[in-house]
Each structure stands twice: as C-alpha cells, then as structure tokens.
C-alpha cells in the first residue's frame, strides 16, 4: 500500500463520513498508518452525544464504534482549530493542484461543519507540529485500539 495519500481522497472520505449529518453537526477525522494499513478515526458531534467510528482500508480490521463526551469533543475541536496549523489547511472544495502526504511523517486531520459550514483538511508535518497536535493525534490513535 503506498504511503502517500492525496488530500482529495481525504475530502471524499470526510464527505462520505458526514453524509448522514443532520443539522449543524461537526465532524473530526484523523488518518494514520498502523503497520501496513491506513486507519481512519472519525468523530461526529451528534445529539445526544458525539459518536466515533474506527475504520480501515484493511477489511480484516473490524469497524468499531465508540462514544465521546461533548466536553471532550469540544476540546478536541478547539485544539485543532486553534493550534496554529491553518497554514497547513486546505478547504475541501479547493481547486488547486492535489497535494500528497506521507501519513507516517504528517498528522492528517479533517474537520467539517455540516451541512453549510467549512470543510478543511490538515496535513501537518510531524516535525513542525505544535505539541497540542501531537497530543491530539495520540488521542485519536488511542480510540483506534
């Protein structure tokens, strides 16, 4: 499996993950490599409580649902949007040439406010990431275990 992923693919995944969004829901997703497979951890802020899903391109890895408290989700959301990583963000509808990233050396996140809000993909180089982004990535990976 190639390590480089195209941000456009992230957008497609993010949009499919939030296709069932109702009202003004927020969604966070992180993509990372675990052994030789890509893992996606998606959390949707839905009433009555945010719900998460762990999926993978590897069909042998079972999907797993989990719950997140609203205060925890709010903290995760604010960490991503206030971490000073805006320079690494791309809107999901950005028409600029595709960019590829190695999920081993980048923290790859998506954030969306549906149905009419923003959709952004973040590919933050691990060696330039603020400590708060590294902690957030570790938290997402913890949900995948």
Describe the structure.
This protein has one domain. A hairpin with a 7-residue loop joins strand 4 and strand 5. A seven-stranded antiparallel sheet has the order 5-4-3-2-8-9-6, with helices on both faces. The protein has a two-stranded antiparallel ribbon with strand order 1-7. By secondary structure, the protein is α+β, with helices and mostly antiparallel strands. Helix content is 25%, strand content 37%.
Pick out the low-confidence regions: 1-21
Largest sheet: 7 strands, antiparallel
Give the overall silhouette: globular
Strand content: 35-45%
> Order of strands across the biggest sheet?
5-4-3-2-8-9-6
Question: Would you list the SSEs in sequence order as H and E?
Answer: EHEEEEHEEEEH
The N- and C-terminal alpha carbons lie at a distance of: 21 Å
Helix content: 10-25%
Number of domains: 1
Q: How are the SSEs ordered, and which strands pair?
A:
Elements: E1 4-6, H1 7-17, E2 25-34, E3 37-44, E4 51-56, E5 64-67, H2 70-81, E6 89-91, E7 100-102, E8 106-114, E9 119-125, H3 131-143
Antiparallel strand pairs: 1-7, 2-3, 2-8, 3-4, 4-5, 6-9, 8-9
In short:
With 145 residues, the chain is of the alpha+beta class. The chain has helices spanning 7-17, 70-81, 131-143; strands spanning 4-6, 25-34, 37-44, 51-56, 64-67, 89-91, 100-102, 106-114, 119-125.
Give descriptors for this structure:
about 140 residues, alpha+beta, 7-stranded antiparallel β-sheet, two-stranded antiparallel ribbon, disordered N terminus
């Amino acid at each position: 499996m190639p390590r480089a992923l195209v941000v456009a693919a992230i957008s497609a995944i993010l949009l499919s993950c939030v296709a069932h969004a109702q009202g003004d829901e927020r969604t966070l997703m992180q993509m990372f490599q675990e052994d030789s497979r890509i893992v996606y951890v998606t959390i949707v802020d839905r009433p009555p409580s945010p719900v998460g899903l762990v999926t993978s391109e590897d069909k042998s890895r079972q999907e797993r649902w989990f719950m997140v408290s609203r205060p925890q989700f709010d903290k995760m959301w604010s960490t991503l949007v206030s971490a000073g990583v805006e320079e690494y963000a791309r809107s999901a509808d950005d028409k600029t040439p595709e960019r590829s990233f190695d999920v081993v050396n980048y923290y790859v996140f998506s954030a969306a406010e549906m149905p009419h809000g923003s959709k952004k993909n973040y590919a933050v180089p691990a060696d330039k990431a603020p400590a708060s982004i590294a902690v957030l990535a570790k938290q997402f990976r913890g949900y995948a275990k």
